[in-house]
Amino acid sequence: MSSSWIQRWGALLSLSLLLGGCQGGLRPVNSVNQQLNRIGSSGSPSLAGGWLALIANRAGARAQVQLIDLQRGAPVPLMGLNRADSLPISVAVDQQGERLALVRQRDDRSELVLYRRSIQAAQLLPIEPAGVPQRVSLSADGRVIAVQVSRGGFWQVDLLELP
Amino acid sequence: MGCGLDPLRRQAAAPTGLGPESRQQPALSGDGRLLATLVERAGRTTVLLQERRSGTVLPLRQLRNRQPHSSPSLSWNGRYLALLVQQGSLRQAVIEDRATGRLQPLFLPPGQEPQQLSLAPDGQSMAVEVISGGSQRVQLFDLSGLLEPDRAPGLRQSGGGPGLAP
Questions:
Q1: Chain A touched by B118 (CB under 8 Å)
Q2: In chain A, at which end, N or C, are there fewer CB atoms within 10 A of the end residue's CB?
Q3: Do B32 and A162 touch (CB under 8 A)?
């Protein structure tokens, strides 16, 4: 093996390491991304444990919340969460994929909803004092919700501890 | 609508020390102990990290002069804060490691412009809403090998559950 050949491979290896460093270690998870690309337009991601919640906007269809099991690479059913009369705005999921917090628009008003997947139940969480919820975060342990609320001309953040 | 979950405990986010001001884009750590929000500081949208209960502000040393900030996202114990910062004319995804003080830039594939981030609680992956080719979509990236895990104490290996029968 000639020294020039070794030098060329050394240079190529250094270049790949350098480019790898420039990528900041970000490696696309192609198996999941192919599934995500099939959804079409999507946004508002929330990642926790092996779960990815997002809002899917299929062409010609109403936007809806999807929860993807990353081990299976497929969405799971969310019976009773997506309604024909509502439009999801922001979603967050917990580590177990059990609780989803959702801000949605329904009948010209925005509302905060907690969905529990094991019992397929959605519960309206009142905003007090009154305000318009916009964006939601759920702690991965599923016990705290932080929601951005428009109130009195300000954006504020309300915190709710869940039992 | 479904069964009750009361009593809920409600609180306003702890004050920032500057009186009433707008706060946006809340992000909780996985254990719910820390809260990141966006506030205005000298006319610049800046991320503020606080302990949720006490309101104590925690330092973020690497993010100055990189405003406007957006889309904060925290790992389980709050060791990692991922967010979008301004880098020249571009939005740049970065992660501040609060344990080491290191700022890790994250470069997306060419043609993908980040809009919103969600860091996995263990810091081993990240979902990014990107604009690519004029369309909006979510993409998942692997961060293992880049960040040490930031898992909950005693938490079993995270992963998708058995799910519900269709």
A1: yes
A2: N
A3: no
